[in-house]
Amino acid sequence: MKFSLNTILAFNQWNKTADNIVPNGVDDLLQKIGAQLGEIDETVDFGTKYDGVVIVKVVECVKHPDADKLSLCRVDDGGVVKDVERGEDGLVQVVCGAPNCREGIMAAWLPPGATVPSSVDDDPFVLEARELRGKVSNGMLASPKELDLGESHDGILEVDGHIPAGTAFVDAYNLKDDLIIDIENKMFTHRPDLFGFIGIARELAGIQGIKYKSPEWYVSEPKIGDVEGESLTLEVINELPELVPRFTAIAMSDVKVGPSPGWLVVELAKLGQKSINNIVDLTNYIMLSTSQPLHAYDYDKVKALSGDKPTIVIRNPHKGEKLALLNGKSVEPRAEAIMIATDKQLIGVGGIMGGSETEVDDNTTNIIIECANFDMYSIRRTVMAHGLFTDAATRFTKGQSPLQNLAVQSNMINSVKQHAGGKIASAMIDDNHLKEATCKRGSLHPEVKVSVDFINVRLGLNLKASEVAKLLTNVEFEVEASGDDLTVKAPFWRTDIELREDIVEEVGRLYGYDHLPLSLPAHDLTPANRNESFDLKSFIRNRLSRAGANEVLGYSFVHGNLLEKVGQDPKNAFEVGNALSPDLQYYRLSLMPSLLEKIHPNIKAGYDEFALFEIGKTHSLQHPSDDDEVPQAYEFTGLVVTAADKLKKSGAAYYQAAKYLENLAGLKLRYEPLTKEMQAYDVAKPYNPDRSASVSLPSGDFLGIIGEFKPSVLRNLKLPKYTAGFEVDTTILGYLMNGMTKAYHPPFKYPSVKQDMTLKLDSKVTIQQLLDDSEDIYKDAKPEGIVHHDIEVLDIFQRQDDQEHKQVTLRFTTTGMDRTLTDKEVGTGLDKFYEKLKSKLGAERI
Amino acid sequence: MIDQKLIDDLKKRAEEGDASVLRSPEFKSLFDAIKTIDAEKRSEYGQAVNKLRTELSEILAEKSDQESALPPIDVTAPYDANLKANEKPQLLPSEQGTIHPLTAEQDKVLDIFYRMGFTAVESREIDDDFHMFGSLNFPEGHPARDDYDTFMTTQKDKNDKPYIAPAHTSTMQNRVLKAHKQDLENGQPIAAVIPGRVFRNEDLDPRHEHTFYQLEGIYVGEGINAGHLIATLKTFLQEYYGQELEVKTQPFYFPFTEPSFEFALSCPFCDKKGCNICSQSGWIELLGCGMIHPNVLHEAGIDTEKYTGFAWGGGIDRLVMMKNGIEDVRHFHSGRLEFLRQFK
């Protein structure tokens, strides 16, 4: 929301609304705006570029002797400009090419040495006295475009006649030291009243403890005059009272449409609006002051497009109906859009933009002025659906108060009369669907009863009732105090005051949050609970990163193609219906696809061997919902190890992944080939069933899946052959942190005996089976007494010429806890062990 | 709609491992026919052709997996057979391992809040309309409920509204307030922080991500006021940056707090003199905050006569980017080792 500080200062002075609102200088004011109103986007010094521009009277204007399109003018600058060539009568000669240049008008003169205002920002152009077809032109008379006041370059700006020649342009239009202040709109989401400078002016006073009193026409009962002269018929039919709670319209006749006066052009230009004609400009100016958008229609065009009598209908569009807009585009409005129509066809998008067929133009003599209220959410959807971002829409999407329409209408009517002539030609049509109580109360919500204590507790202050009342009445709240109890009525333009907390906000802001006393909440010594899940994840991260793996973060959403590449079924995934990017079609079913996807780019970037891991949430339509009936996330920890093909790594990558997993878990885990049932799960889909396993804790709790990937997955994701990974349930890993680690034994006092045994076995016997049986047998076969033992696999060998068998070397580490064991007694134990193992597994000692 | 014999033929070829079947004239002609089919049957036919293509691709993939399959391994073994001692699987060198800078920072932030007496709660990545909007005082029809900014699923919740990828961690507020209501009534203030992933429907560029990391905080107790809020955040930030800071608030608007603020701190990188990180302003806007709206407390059954509270939310990614001078937010999810390994 932009506003001009000078506009507000002049307005305040003219309407006697407030005392000086810049008592401590502009910087102080800007600081207060930031702290108490909202963030300032930027401030622009609007006036400086007009330094040197002088208002002159064109005293003489004759045709240039040697050029058809140029005039030779002599202008009166009151003698204020120094160092310029003058005639004996003190007038200055200027050559001008504008068709509207004529004797007697007032114009803006850029004397030699002045910079063309529109060129200041990019490539400053400084004027000089120079000859045009043999005649000296001392500077130039400026068009609105050259003055950076609009697009018009057809003629020079005609300055308002009452301004004396020789007045500096900045003085004539109150631009000296003017600042255009732009406050971020999002600060005012709930403050529709701050989209007009009257509202801003009130706040600027309020935040400085200065009393503000709105101009009389805004706050007193509006008086709309009677029909003067010709009466124009007009009917309004509101088919959408829910969405259009108030719609006012009035007809005016005998209006003279023409260019706007200079001050109006300047006021609009300051806020970035271009001048169109006096009627349209007035609707815009009144919107900029009151924040209530207005729209003017050409009455006769509406009449021509109506049936028997001129009619305005508020309705939804019919199927296929189109509308040509004022911006030159055409729109086929969404079915729920609020449209303005005659009884025959559309003439405007309600609250957003008018149609071109009923536009007010130079030939217009009769007009209809509309001042209405539209549902803010409906307006927003229409804006978004059609990309129609207009100033009116910006204001209506904040929800304008429906209690100010008549005051604004009355202001508009008077302004039209003043600047474009015109007479009231119909009664005020006021289609009002507000509750009677609301209208009677003159405030959108009932009075709020609140105690001063309630306010003080929430702000940490000790204000007195009178202080609170003053802050509020400064911005025109009505406050009745009875001891410490206040009854507060919000003014009619405030849509946001409903609860006691809203009053707290208002008081706090006007008082100034920047000088609230700061203190930490009082706290007892009860320790705050740490979050075990976060602690677990930190633990996992530390373990894995210490093992040389790199943590990555993958998006929660994946492209459908990725799911297909790894064989997962998109039908099981939550589908994002509205993502801008196709990369975000589905919630990921498991972490592995995102991890695998990150391998190839890194290999390509020259990293030959690495491990990536992620701890993240996955979602599937097959997962159960939680207690709130919201889809439940499964938290997984995934890791991939890979080595570029050129390294020609030996052995199966599977075992390296297992190495990582056991390092993470801190103990031996149990692996079983994937069952058919298991292979059907999406999480298992990328894995090669011949080289993968389901993995569990020794307790039997299912932990997850580990393995190498299907050849199709390797191919589709351009993965090195040596690639494997695991994806395990993070929650189950958490069991390991809760004390379930390897059993403790005291440090050994006596030396251990290490003996190896190489066994030839059927190759179908798994190592797990061998170890389980060995454990089972050796615990009874080992030397008597308190003896600790450990069995590990030292080597696995398979002869090329005998695929039926494998040779496994086991190492037995046996330690007496209360004595030194001899090699002999350990050897005897191992012999016993071998006999039993032989009969159990058919193993052969070699 | 498609000749069953042709389907059988094509599938047979796929089962025989003939990869050219997808490019065969017979198969292509099925696609060409889409244009000539009656408009009303076209979509059904198109789906049938697509289904066939998927089936053929699957058969081919399976076939090719079978053909290039490596022999099964003993998944219970510690390593492969016939390996030399130096070929047995090993962990990679410890010094090349890294923790992601965002999770590392989150841990650091959590640690400070633990010390300040806050507990921490996990957020979620999919939620329903009630938790994301209804319980947070977003009226029906509020713009945030439109799907322009928020990811929504095609699947619907129990109230026939789409599920939502949370746009802010406030989606957890109602749950946390409810969970601790009893403690509150027993005299323990509710003090919790909620870190989590949040989502916004934006196209990616160096400054815009659709996925980012927020930390939400809430504090509810008796007599809690806006001064407590500002002091709490200031205390955290001073601890985090290890220096004295100035802070300021600017009025803002959020539906779930009243009053609402934008919170800024004096730039810790230049001592408020102005630098690139603070855009020469000396101030950094870091988070949104405010006093929890009474409707939000009501929704969790908390007595707003007796209890008041504050909440805030800010981005972890911002903290990390500012601290390390990271120029492109997309690096975080890129998985590039060149990026990740810089954060030891």
- Basic shape of chain B: extended
- Give the tally of β-strands of chain B: 9
Percentage of residues in DSSP E strands of chain B? 15-25%
Q: Identify the overall geometry of chain A.
A: elongated
Number of strands of chain A: 39
Order of strands, main sheet of chain A, comes to 27-30-31-35-34-33-32
Q: What sequence of helices (H) and strands (E) makes up the elements of chain B?
A: HHHHEHEEHEEHEEEHEHH
What oligomeric state best describes the polypeptide chains here? heterodimer
Helical content band of chain A? 25-40%
Low-pLDDT segments of chain B: none
Quickly give the structural class of chain A. Answer: alpha+beta
Task: Evaluate the radius of gyration of chain B.
Answer: 28 Å
Number of helices of chain B: 10
Average pLDDT for all residues of chain A: 93
Largest sheet of chain A: 7 strands, mixed
Helix content of chain B: 25-40%
- Quickly count the helices of chain A: 25
Describe the structure.
The complex is a heterodimer of chains A (846) and B (344). In chain A, the strands form ten sheets. Chain A has a seven-stranded mixed beta sheet. In chain A, strands 3, 4, 5, 6, 9 and 10 form a six-stranded antiparallel beta sheet that branches. Chain A has 25 helices and 39 strands. Chain A is elongated and about 135 Å long. By secondary structure, chain A is of the alpha+beta class. Chain B is built from ten helices and nine strands. The model of chain B has no long low-confidence stretch (mean pLDDT 90). Chain B has helices at 4-15, 25-32, 39-67, 101-115, 129-132, 173-185, 226-241, 294-299, 316-324, 337-340, and strands at 119-120, 152-156, 162-164, 190-199, 211-222, 247-254, 257-266, 283-292, 307-315. Chain B is extended, with a radius of gyration of 28 Å. In chain B, the strands form two sheets. Chain B has a seven-stranded mixed beta sheet, sandwiched between helices. In chain B, strands 2-3 form a two-stranded antiparallel sheet. Chain B is an alpha+beta fold and 344 residues long. Chains A and B meet through helix 2, helix 9, helix 13, helix 15 and helix 16 of A and helix 3, helix 4, strand 1, strand 2 and strand 4 of B.
